[in-house]
Specification:
TIM Barrel; globular; alpha/beta; 8-stranded mixed sheet; Urease, subunit C, domain 1; 2 domains; 11 helices
């Protein structure tokens, strides 16, 4: 009776009904997957939101849908390790539940980003609101560094309040939400001492997570050598690496040479993060650094209202800058996927291993004449530019620039 039933199903629906074990195949793309040392033309099969198979050829008959990505680059979904997405309506706030932060889904998928890390916008006082309001409502995967300041990034006045920098309560909040919080952020303190850094590191030691430091504005200016070699631990993060601002010592000196202790710090395990933002990526700092072999560990955007419409734009544009500075495409992808996953201790992300969640970005590498702008509104010409054709989040297409995942209008049924 069972064999008769199977024969009847095959007769009614065709012999391939049992062969379609995959939901989707991305076929013929140049797969760059740094964790698995892949840089070759491969097919990727997806089933139930996971990577099901990676091979040189997977039979199209095994999938409900096949998307031909010939000539395109297929990478793990981009992890943007420095963003501000605690968006709200508090007009008195700078970023925490304020207008300066952005609703993530509107700005992630179109640039290949599937995971963002909010960089300290919330603190232990308001993280729960951020989780309910944004993290739990978004398709984009959202993780967070929480501020050592309990109020988060409400304003620069609040960032001076040492009484609100509580290592124990900060660590308690991290341990309460270990699936969401990946570290601690120190930011915008203007005092001439290392107290906020020390308290952030204390909280990091309790919770066993890294610290990200936005270091600047100190009066008098503090030594970044002391910060790197004495205050921070291996695995802690220095963001806005290529900044050039008042009251913050730059990594490249007046002689256009990278300071020798920078290489020592990177070798020690200090993580150097781009954090472009609206004011923290300056051409002469980046160009001199790359030429002298000082590469960022992580490429990140510092996405917020004031950066997205200025020099930064989005992660695809930012990654393109480093391509035009001479970094290989493999290096650029690695520092935007697998490396940040390691830094935030989320090694289930940032790769295309069978069994991993199918977060995928598909890029076109355009050749031509392009211009790229730094945080001081100065342009550098380039010949390559990344454009995102397709983004998948947990196996679902969430961005399709040119309709490559759907049927032509005159061949698809009209649905209401």
């Amino acid at each position: 009776m069972k064999n008769v039933l199977l024969w009847l199903i095959c007769w009614l629906f065709g012999s391939n009904v049992f062969a379609q074990e995959f939901d989707l195949i991305l076929a013929n793309g140049r797969v760059i997957d740094p964790k698995n040392n892949r840089n070759e033309v491969l097919d990727i099969a997806i089933a139930d939101g996971k990577i099901a198979q990676v091979a040189s050829r997977i039979s199209p008959s095994k999938a409900h849908k096949v998307i031909d990505v010939t000539g395109l680059v297929v990478s793990p979904g981009i992890i943007d390790m420095h963003t501000h997405v605690f968006q709200g309506t508090d007009v008195d706030s700078y970023l925490a539940n304020g207008l300066g932060s952005l609703p993530p889904d509107g700005f992630t998928f179109r640039s290949g980003v599937t995971t963002v890390v909010d960089a300290g916008t919330s603190g232990w006082r308001n993280f729960r609101k951020f989780k309910r309001q944004t993290i739990d409502q978004s398709q984009t995967r959202i993780l967070a560094f929480i501020s050592i300041v309990g109020a988060g990034m409400y304003g620069r006045l609040e960032a001076q309040d040492l009484n609100d920098m509580d290592p124990v309560l900060t660590a308690f909040m991290i341990n309460t939400y270990p699936d969401d919080i990946v570290g601690i952020k120190k930011h915008h303190y203007r005092g001439g001492d290392f107290t906020p850094v020390e308290r952030a590191v204390e909280a990091g030691n309790i919770a066993k997570v890294p610290v990200m430091v936005d270091f600047g504005e100190h009066q008098p200016e503090l030594s970044i050598k002391t910060l790197f070699l004495e205050k921070l631990r291996p695995g802690d993060i220095f963001t806005h690496t290529y900044s050039f601002t008042k009251n913050r010592e730059p990594v490249v000196g007046d002689d256009n040479q990278v300071k020798p202790f920078i290489f020592e710090a990177q070798k020690r395990g200090i993580i150097f993060d781009v954090g472009h933002g609206g004011g923290s990526f300056i051409w002469h700092q980046a160009i001199s650094s790359i030429k002298q072999g000082f590469l960022p560990d992580v490429i990140s955007s510092d996405l917020h209202f004031w950066s997205m419409n200025s020099g930064m734009k989005d992660m695809a544009n930012l990654m393109s800058k480093f391509l035009n500075l001479g970094m290989s495409l493999e290096d650029v992808v690695s520092r935007s996927t697998w490396k940040p996953a390691q830094v935030i201790q989320r090694e289930e992300l940032g790769h295309l291993t069978v069994g991993a969640e199918a977060d995928i970005a598909v890029f076109k590498v355009l050749q031509g004449e392009f211009g790229f702008i730094d945080a001081r509104n100065r342009m550098m010409k380039g010949s390559q530019k990344l454009e995102v054709e397709l983004t998948l989040r947990a196996g679902k297409v969430v961005w399709d620039l040119n309709g490559m995942s759907v049927a032509p209008w005159n061949k698809a049924p009209l649905k209401y």
